[in-house]
Amino acid sequence: MHALRQEILPPSGVEFATSLRLTPSTLEELPTPPNATTRHEFAARALCNVVIARSSILRIFEVREEPVVPQVDDERERKKALKGTEAVEGEVAMDEQGEGFVNIAKSSGQTADVAVRTTTKFYLVREHRLHGIVTGIEGVKIITTLEDKLDRLLVSFRDAKIALLEWSFAVHDLITVSIHTYERAPQLMTSDPSLFRAELRVDPHSRCSALSLPKDAFAILPFYQTQAELDVMDQDQTHTRDVPYAPSFILDLPAAVDQNIRNIVDFVFLPGFNKPTIAVLFQTQQTWTGRLKEFKDTARLVIFTLDIVTQTYPIITSVQGLPYDCFAIMACPASLGGVVILSCNSIIYVDQSYRLVILPLNGWQARISDFPLPSSTPEQRDCNIHLEGCHATFVDDRTLFLILKDGTVYPVDIVVEGKVVTKMTMSSALAQTTIPSVIRRITDTHVFIGSTVGPSVLLNAAQVEEDVDEDEEMSSPTAFVQMHIDYDDDDDIYGDSEAKEPATNGHVNGKVAKKTRTVIRLSECDSLPAYGPIADMTFSLARNGERHVPELVAATGSGHLGGFTVFQRDLPIRTKRKLHAIGGARGMWSLPIRQTVKTGGISYEHAMDPYHAENDTLILSTDINPSPGLSRIATRAAKGDVSIATRIQGTTIGAAPFFQRTAILHVVTNAIRVLEPDGTERQIIKDMDGNMPRPKIRACSISDPFVLIVREDDSIGLFIGETERGKIRRKDMSPMGDKSSRYLSGCFYVDSTGLFEKNLKSSLALDGATTTLQAAVNPGSSGQSLLLVRPQGILEIWNLPKLALVFSTSIISSLQNVLTDSHDTPALSLPQDPPRKPQDLDIEQILLAPIGQSTPRPHLFVFLRSGQLTIYEAHAGGQGSDPPPTVRVSSLDIKFVKVLSKAFEIQRPEEGEKSILAEQKRVLRMLVPFVTAPAPGTTYSGVFFTGDRPSWILSTDKCGLQLYPSGHNVVHAFTPCSLWDSKGDFLLYSEEGPSLLEWIPEFDLNGPLPSRNISRGRSYSNLIFDASTHLIVAASSLQARFASFDEDGNKVWEPETSNISDPLCDCSTLELVSPDLWVTMDGYEFATNEFINDMTVVSLETAGTETGTKEFIAVGTSINRGEDLAVKGATYIFEIAEVVPDPAFSSKRWYKLRLRCRDDAKGPVTAVCGFSGYLVSSMGQKVFVRAFDSDERLVGVAFLDVGVYVTSLRTLKNLLLVGDAVKSVSFIAFQEDPYKLSLLGKDINRVCVNNADFFFADGQLSILTGDEEGIIRMYDYNPHDPESKDGRHLLLRTEFNSQSEYRASILVARRTGDDPMIPQAKLITGSTDGTLASLTPVEEHVFKRLQLLQGQLTRNVQHVAGLNPKAFRIVRNDYVSKPLSKGILDGNLLGHFEALPIARQVDVTREIGTERMTVLKDWIGVNSPW
Fold first, then answer.
1. Across 493-581, where does the E strand assignment appear?
2. What is the structure's pLDDT at 32?
3. What is the pTM assigned to this prediction?
4. Residue 266 contacts residue 296 (beta carbons within 8 Å)
5. pLDDT band for position 75 (50/70/90)?
6. 472-479: long-range contacts at Cβ-Cβ below 8 A with a sequence spacing of 24 or more?
7. Are the beta carbons of 1291 and 1256 closer than 8 angstroms?
8. I need a surface site. Which of 812, 912, 1061, 1271 has the fewest CB within 10 A?
9. What is the per-residue pLDDT across 457-494, written as a single tens digit (0 to 9) for each?
10. Sign of dihedral through CA atoms 584, 586, 590, 595?
């Protein structure tokens, strides 16, 4: 068998982060208007770039500071009026338990003259899925930074590689400068690469970088900083002048620095030195808690200098006798000097003169270390804080923020007397934020906290001055917490209580001066959503309105960030009402037309509610039946229904509001009409050539006051409205060439973003007065442009109203990655004889529309006749002030960068078929822009793609462009509609007829799948869905205090003091959850030392049903009894029973969990599953098959010894797969007469298997396994193969390195177009890094084509960071002569084919002897989430 592995969702969370100035936007100065004051409102600016990485995904964000847009909220306005205060940036409410993001604040009165309030937000710039696992990212400055002022990005990878990347303005993306690989270094060739992690550090002055290697070595990569350095280094090597770095080398620390440096724990570069200086924390002699009597205080610190030129490394400082549990080292600011070392129980400061200052944080420090401790205060003696998993950062020169593994924030002061650090003090906890994995101070006032298990947050830590009274100057606390937060208070959460001395002996100008102190105001600015690792998942049935849809429920997160994340394949929508009366199978337009009222011959506008002035007032719909078509104008009736006001003969091509929304511009197949708001005709222009009718109008674009029509013979017509007359007339098109020129498509664009106006360069004034009153009536309108596509594939942009050509490109039809202005004059596109036939690569439709959330950007949509949809994002071209090399008087200095390319399989009728029936069957594929507000304060600008592949195309601030299916088989017409006073409604004509829809607002659109986070405040280890009740059974993962007891029931050990605590152990509870309301209906608590390993739904025999069987919940647990006693376990059987609901709580059906049986075991029950009527469970190395006897006990019928520790059990009919932690996988059959488990085959190699699954398609069966390193293996059971030893050995066919371990897997049915009786199996896996992936069966002939294509893409496509996709997936196997890499395709690599330009696609497919469309159809057939 063959399979395709594809990532449905990329890794979630942030593991590495850095701040730098990577893109040119971060260099733009703050625009200051003339005569502006410091309090003048200013435009947004980019502070810096933040680059984040998790596993194989790299994201580049822009951190923008922008003015706060006030929200219209009556309650907020009322509160501000009452209190006179103003909300600070990013305030968040705190719940009673202290969870969530907390701000602690001091209210301040608001004066009349205030500074502009700003907020800081993330905006995604670029995202890449890499063919490597990132282990570090840093920003560096190289010699070319002196020219462009931009930093470069340094990325390290798991396989000991470093890539140097820089931003290219030409392609608006990262490009690779160099890649440095150390895979063949002696340290890696002689060690197991899976046992070490290559960590990256960079000198603060960018003089060099260091990558940790095995065997206590560093790979040093020096960078040139000045031309003088380059001249010195290049005296002997002139060929290196082009590179920004010197030759790298490997530094063997024991041999070159100190022979005692072994077992490196952490290392860091120190600032403020003339040469690169490194501090290394290591353990020459390793120890652990059980050997503290033999070895204690084994950690050491060495600080040495790197002299790269002379290759000498003098030691500056060496410290011994540090606590053995030191795990991290931090460089202090240069003004302070020294380093801070974090251990599990204390914080230690070390300066360059060997002086050590320690701050113990619990009672364990004195028990595990002989390190001398200072005298402690009573508060310190009661302190019991553990630092495992914590992270820290400096927020100023002497203030340290410590964030524990549960997100609690503690401030630490470093007290300096003179130039000597005398002590460190810690104040009480300030707040609880996200669970940290990385902390970076990205600006002087902003701190970024990245998390791998939940959302990452950006905090503002600004220093402000606070007045203090003289009597409370020294008594005020260094940190204080205000428990009751109001939304309109400023948040000062920490002050260092250092009062400034008053001037002139306490008097200023005769008045007593108040003393002040510096406080740090901490507030949340923005966050990056993430759900973290996937522990388990299951499919459930959700209701979107009246529709039932499958949704994937995953147990995600950790600790207080734990809960459920719900994913749906299609964008979740619900139907608000059916509108069959309006029809609309050929088009619908919801229009905001202002009604006028005539009285005494005078017209005036009807009074309207100003809040609803922009809402739609009528719907115009059209149908092709009855011939020649029928159009209707419908309005809203009194009771909310619709009433048909006017019926018009003919099929409508397009409609839009005109003359400042006082009339309707109506385009039919043979005329352009102006209608009054009530539907009566004001003007009609028949589309005639003299007395001869022209070909029918097939498309149009309307943008007040312009109208464009495109006829069936590809000729066009352009009309303009005259506001003073209320009429339209033809517009002269002579600047565009011959009036008989042919065009494939066209559209108008209104420059709402200002990008076109800013980058328009012309020697003539193009924005002169028009012949109409348009400019006077609507002076706020933006510049308008006309986009046209000629048959030879040339895109032209014409500036309106004077029809000046400002942009032209001839490479759009080949879908190149970047489109720039070719500065050509208008092209010729005269009619051909015989008429030109449509071609597959013709551009069928083009659209330029803004896409985005808070700051939409123009996007160019190109839809080819072959079904290829490509989307470009518009950016400033950056050609400078150089005059364009052309005779054109004007130029639009922009470029279009490809951001998404998607192929659709298009079914078209026969070309010659022109019958009425064929016209009725024709599917309209239209790109319809829309703006919607699904929730208050949230606005999306997007595009809907109608037809037989209906899709929503959206983009958010923190996510790139996404294409979501709508969930319909076909959508004939679409329009946004606010007729019912809602900006979030849509009118859509699908296979179910016309309906009014809305989005389900709770879903997050920041990923490839719409998702919804269900926060539960705790994490879950197992999930199952009960189909009979539609409920979810979840096993929560909690922590409880652990105590050991002797035979008499007395505690073996108890804490003596308050700063010593009991150890913690895992425990579980079982919860019955309703997926409708996400409430817990019932639960079952296990013992505090018992936790759930596995659970499943099994069908067992029972006397309580007519069929004799019933589905039960089977649970396997472990009972931890301490290190001196063996682990035990138990098997539980629960049933879900319906009970009478409590009317006070719920009137719906209610269920409870009922324990039917508990069966104790001598070992842990690690896995459970079921045959039909039997329970299969594991205990240690044995597998048992049991029957449920009398609904009260389990009776064993068969068992088998299989391995050492069973990790996975899967059944298929009477076949059983057993995954083992040591002995790989076993294939077993079960028979009932007599009861027997028979071993059919097993893998003879020692492999750790986490999951084993059946995988089948078209009468073939394979076995898939996944191990703890993310390696997927595919086995065959074939007794006829001689290598299988009569089937006793499973045959390993394929090994594929997915690079991410998966603990959860689901087998779902995949039905192809043939719809066989037995569907194919599709495996969906959830990984510990948040990756959601699928394994799809691939037919033999399709696999061969895609395998050849994969090889071509590996060799002929330039990959990000210069990585090798083939090496990324290869698995090292010492038992075979060459890697078993053929059998599983890499979907991430094959996905690049869709994004290639068409010319490259043709070249690549020609090399493998096939056609482009054949490969695209193969890819479309296997490319779907589920």
1. 494-499, 507-508, 511-512, 515-528, 534-544, 547-556, 563-567, 573-578
2. 41
3. 0.91
4. no
5. very low
6. 473/497, 473/499, 473/515, 473/517, 474/499, 476/517, 477/427, 478/411, 478/413, 478/425, 478/427, 479/411, 479/427, 479/428, 479/430
7. no
8. 912
9. 999 888 777 776 654 443 343 333 322 223 233 333 33
10. negative
